[in-house]
Amino acid sequence: MEPSKRGRGGRTESAVEEHRLAPDIDVIVPPAGSYPLSRDAPERKLSRVDRYGRRARVTAYETLTSTGTVRISFEVVDDEPFDFKPGHFVGIQADIEGFGVRKTPYCIVSVPNDERTFQLLVRLVPEGPLSYYLGALKVGDVIGFRGPVGRSMVPKEEEQNELILMATGVGIGPFLSFARYLHDEGMEQPIRVFWGLRMAEDICLLNELEDLARTCEDFSYQISLSQPPEGWQGLRGRITESVPPLLATLGGKHFYLVGNGAMIEEMSEALSDLGVFKHLIYEEPYFNTRYKPEETELERVKQAFVARDLSSPRVRREAAERKLRRNQGARSASEAWESGRL
Fold first, then answer.
1. Is the predicted pLDDT of residue 83 greater than 60, yes or no?
2. Which runs of consecutive H residues, i.e. helices, occur in the chain?
3. Is the link from the previous residue into 148 a cis peptide, with omega within 30 of 0?
4. Torsion-angle region of residue 252: left (phi > 0), alpha (psi -120 to 50) or beta?
5. 95 lies in which domain range?
6. Are residues 274 and 223 in the same domain?
7. Is residue 38 part of a domain?
8. 248: which DSSP letter?
9. Which parts of the chain are beta strand (E)?
10. What would the pLDDT profile of 46-62 be if each residue is shown by its tens digit?
11. pLDDT of 105 higher than 80
12. Is this model's pTM higher than 0.90 or not?
């Protein structure tokens, strides 16, 4: 779905303005050639360039779940280059009746290729009119977009850390292309995928996951349901609850967090407090980008971890400093509210 990044995959349009590459409406560019001396000369007038001038045609449309998850395939039909890596996204723009012009970034979920094609995984949500615009597309329809742009998920070639991929909802999409890309490139780090969903009816893409488990030597996945049906044999609860007890150690791992910003903030802060360096935590929130966990909730997540291998005086000091900053931020917000400034 739509990317965000802390301040940036499937989020609703209301979060777009927080995207780290925003604003993404127009780019103001100077005129070509040398500048005239006079500031009032018409040749110095700035012009606007449409950043959504690229075009792609729908080639396939699949309904994946009864709860509103679809996969849409596109081919690029303009003449510009189209190169991307796992983690990159395209920005989609459309003029939607009753809502006006909307624009939202969506993570590309297909493997990089030379055919100038890409796929998007979209969750249809009432608060995201652009998602319903995409959901109404038919094969042959043409959309306007920009990109690909963004931050690659691909680790450095010399890195041999185990990859721990945690996703909620359609955040699973870029992980599928990421794992396949690494395998195709001969990068054989162990990969463990944890996918958090609400209900069994939300589960999809099992063929893709099973194919990765079958063809990639050290790939595994587990699904955690927060509202599991009777007899469910997988993980239970949110992944902030079900995954920490499964990680015997935290060292030698690179963590990737994609999806719900609440999950990402809680997991990222907990991992940092337990000694994982920030550069080993990749974050891609799709929504809830402003979420800040209560200290009690953060403590609950940390207590769920069984791993304590990274503890050190430095780690404890840095964790205490982060806790102090969080508490100071909470006090400042509370004081601002009481004084009427919020």
1. yes
2. 129-135, 172-184, 206-215, 239-242, 261-273, 295-304, 313-338
3. yes
4. left
5. 13-25+47-150
6. yes
7. no
8. S
9. 26-29, 47-50, 54-63, 69-76, 88-96, 100-107, 117-123, 142-150, 162-168, 191-197, 219-225, 235-236, 253-260, 281-287
10. 455 568 899 999 999 99
11. yes
12. no
